[in-house]
Every structure is written in structure tokens, then in C-alpha cells.
Amino acid sequence: MPRLLFVALAALLPDVAAAADRVTGADFATRSEVFARNGMVATSQPLATQVGLDVLRHGGSAVDAAIAANAALGLMEPTGSGIGGDLFAIVWDAKTKRLYGYNGSGRSPKALSLQWFKDNGYTTIPPYGPLPVSTPGAVDGWFALHGRFGKLPMKDLLTPTITYAREGFPVGELIAYYWDRSLPRLREQPGFLDQFTIDGRAPRKGEIWKNANLARTLEAIVKGGRDAFYKGDIARTIGASVQSAGGFLAYEDLAAHRGEWVEPVSTNYRGYDVWELPPNGQGIAALQMLNILEGYDLKSWGFGSPEHIHVFVEAKKLAFEDRAKYYADADFAKAPVERLISKEYAAERRKLISMDKAATSVVPGEFTTQGDTIYLTTADRFGNMVSLIQSNYRGMGSGVAPKGLGFILQDRGEMFVLKEGHANTYAPGKRPFHTIIPAFITKGGEPWLSFGVMGGDTQPQGHAAIVVNLIDFGMNLQEAGDAPRIQHDGSTSPEGQAAPMSDGGTIELETGFDHAVVRALMRKGHRVRHADGSFGGYQAIGVDVKTGVYVGASEGRKDGQAAGY
Predict the structure, then answer these.
(1) Mind listing the domains of the chain with CATH numbers?
(2) What's the pLDDT score for residue 366?
(3) Residue 365's pLDDT is what?
(4) From CA 367, how far away is CA 348, in angstroms rounded?
(5) Strand, coil or helix: 308
(6) Strand 527-530 to strand 506-509: parallel, antiparallel, or no bridges (unpaired)?
């Protein structure tokens, strides 16, 4: 009997193994795409997705839903977002049939100078504490977007988060993990332990978290509008908290803040127009990569082939050297954007790529010129779509939590360079180089896809990879995000403070690439290692303009959700 039982079980094993594979789609897909006609929301937190959906059901626009979901994420995912940070967005307006870009990044303190850093022995700006704090732009961004495209009162958009903040919500597994990891480096910062721990520890997964301070702050914003944040008691408290900790951000910096509407820029990739925002963000790095990659027959090579990975990494090396030299606040150093994203420039740079050998040294082009985030996307029944990204930088930002306000200030000022002559050199009242970037794709002048990928240097690489996965490799929206990711590290830092790449850097590959591919890459001179974490967090909403059907996808590496109605 034992032998017969063994034989019977062995006969069943192939069927058991087969059952582990997906019946439809790629084996690496974590779930199916989501379809709906009347609206769609995709965020990295299911409760925030539901907040956005409720807004759509009550007649709100895609912008209304995005604001409501973003507010909820600031409460539910403080490890990546909050009203102490900045915001960027691309909006597709169905009425005018065009894209609108918004740059909601804040500026450096006017009282802080480059000379102060030199006089006090700094060669880089520290990542935590009061010195890297720049003016938070998210709240101003909400009101700018709402003033142009909103339909419901701001009270209706913020009340769900106010309620969750007072009554509490269960913390998700991944957020609890990152919260706990942030604690050792931030516990000494002013206000952090008091406002973002439970008896000195991070909340555990499933544990109820409340934030009455944030509820009061949001109520003040509902009552007093954006000026309640930038010109009232909140601004005074922010300034006092930062300066008492030894920083420079002042009430006057907040009172002077204004984000700005900007024109998105694009390149055409095999018939699809891919849109990003111009610097001070890094979005055009994705466009530079795509222009270079367009010169190769990726489809014939296949996803995950040595040739695919090799040219992807080499294109990234070239784009990121330009990123390090030229991307900065356009009010201080205007990057040659038109030239950088031109097909002619891509053809020149492509000549530097060898198919047989990895580049170990790359320099930027020459011109005469003057990580931790949330991404969400929404779409409404009117055909409007929003691609929005928001961040504290470095997860929970500076760690400085202004007294009694319930949020943490960003540390985006860390990205400045402390040396003369660089495009991103620190200056008072200047916007730092920014890593967070929303993206959009149109085809034939119609919306096709709103998407983004979170995570520092991952973002332009992730944007390019999503486009390639969809267009060259024919993946569906969910598969394009779930496919194993390629991450290259080692180019000059975005701040221009590292030496130019001299050893080729390192390719990090997620699980799913063949060992023979890794060996082939190593023979080309690449240093390859298995990824020790996951890369970014992807959300996307596509649309079939003929049927009006939305399709949504949410990152399998995160706790998020795409849902429609």
C-alpha cells in the first residue's frame, strides 16, 4: 500500500505543479487586469483606492478622486507620502483634449546659503533633520489642481481622511515593515516619537493607527483653504519647529510658495507619444532611454534576453550621465530639453553602445546651455485622467514632525550640490533636483495610458521598462508591471557629487531571469547581482477610447489595488 500510494501521488504531481501556473497571461503576473466603464482608481493602499472611488461615485472628477486618495495615503502610508512633501501631476482633460502638467515642488529656505554650508564644513547636505527641509508643495498642488479641474468641495475630498485619522484604520503589512525600518534613523528627530510611534515603536501590521493631529490640520485646511497651510498658524508652527531644531525654513518661505503649471514634453516611441514633465524632475531620462532603445529590434530579441538587458542598461548609463549634469530648477539652469530628447541626439549617443562589451566609463553630452514615494492614477466617467506622484523623499522624509500637526517634513533639499558651477548647486529659493515623476501615453492625440513607477532612481528606468514591455513585448497592463525588473546602479549621482562612472556599475535583477542570461551578461563585462529588494511601485490606468472601457493595474510588489465601478 505505501508503494501504491507513492505512485498515485507521483502521478498527480504534474497536475499540482500545473495548477500553480496562471491559466491566462504570463506566469509572473500576480493578478488579472481590472476593467470598468464609469471610473477607475489605482493606488498603493486599498483603503485609499476606495476613498477615491467613493468620490467618483458621488460625481467627483478624476482630479477630485486623486486629491482624496492622496490625502488618504498621507495618513495611511506616511512611509512614502504626506502633506509635508511635494507633488507632481499630469492631467488629461477630456474637454480640451490635451495634457496639463503641474510642478508642485517647493524651494529651499531663503535664509540658508551655500556659504553657510561651506563655513560649517559640509560637503553634502545631510539626509535627515532640519537642514534638508524644503518648502512642502503638496497642499498648494491640491488647490491648484482642484481650482482648475475639481467639481466637489474640498471638504468632501478631505473628510474621509479626517474620519480615518480620528477613528483609526488597520496598518498594512508592507507599510508596517517600512515604518519599523525608519524608526532607528528618525527616532531622535523633533516630534517623531511623539507623533509617529506607539509607545516608542512602529505600529504593527493590522494594528489600528490614529492621527488626531493630522485630522485637525486637515480640518484647518478645509476651513481656511491653502492659505491656512501657507500663511496661517500651520505655517508659523512649521517654521518654528524647523528653526528650533537648528534649521532655516521659515514662515516667509511658506508664505511665498507657489507651484506652477508646466508644459509636458514627449517623444514618440514606435507610434506612441510618451509624456513626462521637464526638469527639475528626472522624467526626460525615460524619454532619452526610449529614444536610444527605439534603434534596436527588442521584439525579436525577446523579454529578458541578454541583448534586451544589455542595451537597456547601456541606454540608462547614457541618459543618467546627462541627468546628473543638466537636470535642475529651470529658473536657475535651463536644461537643453529639446536637444536631450531629440531623435538626432539619441542616434549620436547610440553609437557609443557596443553590443559586445559593457561600458565602464560614460560622459554626458556637451551643450552650450544657459528614493520612496506614492504614485496614484485616477479616471472618471467624463474621460478625464490623472497621473499623480507625491513624496516625502527617503520614505518618511527628514523625520522632523512639526509640533501638533501630524505630518513629517520632506528632506528633498538633500538633493542639492554643495559645489560651485553645477546646475543643481544649492541656492536660496531654489527647487532641488527631483526624482518623482508622473507619466502619460497618448496615441493619435487620444489618451492611452496613465502610469507611474515609484522609487528614486528606479523611476525613469521603470517608466522605460513599462513602455517597452507593453509596446515591444506585447504584455498586458498588469504583466508589464509584474514582469521581473532590471535596475542599474552606478552612474553619476543625480546631484553630480559622485565621480563619473568608471567601473560599469552593477545590474540588479529580480527573480525570473534565466541563469544563462546572467552568464551572457557577465561575459559582456557586466557586474550582475540578485536584487536584495523590490524595485518601485507601479500603478496604471489604460483606456480604450472607442468603447470607453478603462483597464487598471496595481503593483504586485506593494499592497495596493486598482478598482473601478
Answers:
(1) 44-260+376-401 (no CATH), 262-372+435-547 (1.10.246.130)
(2) 57
(3) 67
(4) 13
(5) helix
(6) parallel
Give the distance, in angstroms, between the CA of residue 451 and the centroid of all CA atoms in the same chain. Answer: 10
In the predicted model, what is the mean pLDDT of residues 268-297? Answer: 97
Per DSSP, the residues of 50-103 read: HHHHHHHHTT--HHHHHHHHHHHHHHH-TTT--TTSEEEEEEEETTTTEEEEEE
SS3 for 95-130, per residue?
CCCEEEEEEECCCCCCCCCHHHHHHCCCCCCCCCCC
Length of the chain: 565
Q: Classify 391 as helix, strand or coil.
A: strand
Gyration radius of the chain's alpha carbons:
23
**Amino acid code (one letter) for 202:** A
Given a cut of 80, whether residue 280 has pLDDT beyond it is yes
d(CA 305, CA 396): 37
CA nearest 89: which of 150, 142, 157, 152? 142
pLDDT in tens, 93-122: 999 999 999 999 999 999 999 999 999 999
533 CA to centre of own chain: 16
How far does CA 348 lie from the centroid of its chain?
Answer: 29
> What letter represents residue 203's amino acid?
P
d(CA 45, CA 53): 13
Q: Cell 553634502 belongs to which residue?
A: 124
Q: Cell 563655513 appears where?
A: 119
Contact 535, 458 (CB under 8 A): yes
C-alpha cell at 559: 499592497
**C-alpha separations of 485 from 34, 126, 373, 450 in Å:** 22, 30, 18, 20
Residue 373 known to be catalytic: yes
HSE (CB half, 13 Å, CA atoms) of 180?
A: 10
The Cβ of residue 358 has, within 10 Å, a number of other Cβ atoms equal to 21
Using the predicted structure, report yes or no on whether residue 371 has a pLDDT greater than 50.
no
CA distance 485 to 437: 18
Phi, psi of 509 (to 5 degrees): -115, 130
| Phi/psi at 539 (5° precision) | -135, 150
- Pick the catalytic residue from 49, 267, 373, 425: 373
Q: Say what the pLDDT of residue 1 is.
A: 41
Q: Which helix (H) or strand (E) holds 268?
A: strand 265-269
pLDDT reported for residue 493: 52
> What does the angle CA 220 – CA 228 – CA 401 come to, to the nearest 5 degrees?
75
Cα distances (Å, whole numbers) of residue 382 to 57, 150, 157, 561: 12, 12, 18, 22
The per-residue pLDDT for range 302-321, each reduced to its tens digit, is: 999 999 999 999 999 999 99
Other beta carbons within 10 angstroms of residue 363's beta carbon come to: 13
Whole-number pLDDT of residue 458: 86
pTM exceeds 0.70 for this model:
yes
One-letter amino acid at 39 equals G
- CA–CA dist 519, 313 (Å, integer): 16
CB 134 within 8 A of CB 432: yes
User: Is residue 332 packed enough to be buried (19+ CB in 10 Å), middle (13-18) or exposed (0-12)?
Assistant: middle
Strand partners, 551: 35, 542
End-to-end CA distance of the chain: 55
161 close to 251: Cβ distance less than 8 angstroms: no
For 351, the 3-state DSSP assignment is coil
